[in-house]
Amino acid sequence: MAQFASIVAVYPVFFYSSGAIEEGWKREDLVIARANVVIGYGIGTVFALGLMALGALALAPGGINPEHLSTSAMPTALTLGKVGLAVLFVGMFAAVFGAALEASLSAGYTVSQYFGWQWGKYVKPREASRFHLVVLVTIVVAAAAVGTTVDPIKVTEFVLLLNAAALPLTFVPTLIVANDPDYLGDKTNSRLTNGLATVYLGLILMAALAAIPLLIVTKVGA
């Protein structure tokens, strides 16, 4: 679920593009960026499939529905024991903590850039007070939501469907810029990349068209 969420979510577009500006990425950094995407998503996909397979083998026979993060750790504990469980807990903390930072910073980037405010995590809070305020408010609101009785699984499903509907609105502009030599010089998309991107665009357009009707028909999985 987390891997799929990162693929269909809109916020990484703002997070990574803003981070590239802040950290002053250069042409030589493209190799690292591409490796991060290919290797990172590849490893993440393998782990996600592995966890789902373990869940089907360890939880399904007992009729256990992994509605909580702690429950999803059971297959790893059964397979790898205490050491594996300890490693998993460290990874889970890093993943959740990192995702919280990415999402809150993305909110700050998006709102600040839309309104033309000073922004940036390397800018002093006094000089970019509204940016830092949006980041802080995002964290506080999210933490407050966790303390309510709202089902986090339902919220995740709802957000995923909305993100799927909105994804073409970020993918199409990105694809246009990726083919603009005024921005990228000789680093524009190749024919192969554009072909794969066109196929992907068709898939996300179908997902976007189906997202809202599915949201209504299934009542967000109710």
Topology (elements, then pairings):
Layout lengths: L1 H7 L2 H12 L6 H30 L15 H42 L13 H18 L5 H27 L2 H4 L6 H28 L4
Structure characterization notes:
This protein is mainly α. The protein has a domain at 149-222. Helix content is 76%, strand content 0%. The protein has helices at residues 2-8, 11-22, 29-58, 74-115, 129-146, 152-178, 181-184, 191-218. Helix 2 crosses helix 4 (74-115). It is globular. The model is unreliable at 1-8 (pLDDT under 50).
Could you provide a short overview of the structure?
By secondary structure, the chain is mostly helical. It has eight helices and no strands.
Identify the notable features of this structure and list them briefly:
single chain; 76% helix; 222 residues
